[in-house]
Write a structure and sequence with these properties.
Rossmann fold, five-stranded mixed beta barrel, 6 helices, binds 1,4-anhydro-D-ribitol, EC 2.4.2.3, Uridine phosphorylase, Nucleoside_phosphorylase_d
Length: 241
Amino acid sequence: MFLPILQVNSEDLPGLAIVCGDPRRAEVIARKLDNVRELSFAREYRTFVGEFSGTRLAVVSHGVGSPGAAVCFEELIRGGVGTLIRVGTAGSYSAEHPAGSLIISTAAIRAEGLTRQLVPEGFPAVADSAVTEALYEAALQGGGIVKKGLTVTLDVFFSGVVDIPHKTYKAAGALAVEMEIAALYVVASLRGARAGAILALDGYADADLAAEYDPHSDEVANAVEREIDAALRAAVKLASH
Ligand code: R1X
């Protein structure tokens, strides 16, 4: 089957994919694979396949925001991918896990518009437990601050005149905020795939903590490196389960 938006043949896809927003980050991850091959680079969707420790996997970029990312997740699942791991970045809600820490998202608060057009109110955006545990275990091995818990998925990055209830989300236990996980978890649940996500924190989303946003610091680069390595180790474990 030809996947028209990713512009990839499903026959070329393995059963597991690591997905990330940035096409350049997809290339960074792909460089860690053996026998790597770039299948396509269409719009924001860049697809590589290769092997890590003998496990075949794809690395695919999904761009910024839930609607575009959902297109990528849908086509991958239609193409036979049964396990999806998002490797991303997020803004922190707490000084207990500052920039440079890692978060494993167990579920996402659906504060975006896309999933409302897919499923009814009350439908959970929840990770697969095996993917979550594999990511958590692999992330702990890599050191640094690692937490798992709720994350928020928003559509907005630069705020307008509407108040986003960050304090409420934080009071309700959310650890961090990003822009694609709700789409990933809802699409995966709907289509019978399993999904999880690991996030490198690149600053604060809480206005009381926020300093100048600098996602290009060494501590963030180090956390991104650790999350990529953790996702690859988790992928190997999940491929045999
Ligand atoms: O998920 C968020 C979005 O893809 C995190 O980083 C991007 C915005 O910079």
